[in-house]
Amino acid sequence: xxxxxxxxxxxxxxxxxxxxxxxxxxxxxxxxxxxxxxxxxxxxxxxxxxxxxxxxxxxxxxxxxxxxxxxxxxxxxxxxxxxxxxxxxxxxxxxxxxxxxxxxxxxxxxxxxxxxxxxxxxxxxxxxxxxxxxxxxxxxxxxxxxxxxxxxxxxxxxxxxxxxxxxxxxxxxxxxxxxxxxxxxxxxxxxxxxxxxxxxxxxxxxxxxxxxxxxxxxxxxxxxxxxxxxx
Length: 231
Ligand SMILES: [Zn+2]
Description:
binds zinc ion
């Protein structure tokens, strides 16, 4: 369809090119959603979002579609936001304590990325995926300040051909130590054990720019574990 002037909708549609920055409207919606999850643990309704941002419900739905295309969020079967990387809107085994409130990360790597994203020292309250033993971490950007047990690790899976929430998040988890890392890796193909400091480096590469003014049209997902593809 030919048009002689660029509408906001056309600008939004162009934003799915990963080389382009995310369109400003979608960027603003994304930041509003992240701030809402940090403040309340949940995502406002389309009606509330339209009211808060002074726009129409149609514009909000179009913005959500752009953010799904860019892998910034996923919607459940009813159209509600179920995942807003790094956050989950339902409880998971990886809680991050933000201003005294438990907020849930989609996976262990996402949990480790939140302190850098917010530029704050935060506690992470996790569990070993194999034995369910508690795993407590204190993380400041760039540093694992404390890990209990000190043998705790991350086991991670990457698959760039499927959405992260299906392919990676359920298999990117904390384990209490090498023995349970080995057990989980035997169960789930394509997983790799990462010491916490190495997992933190990967997490910060993905999430430390999520709060900057311009973000790419497609969410960065970091490197494929165990390969030099992105080196
Ligand atoms: Zn364990």
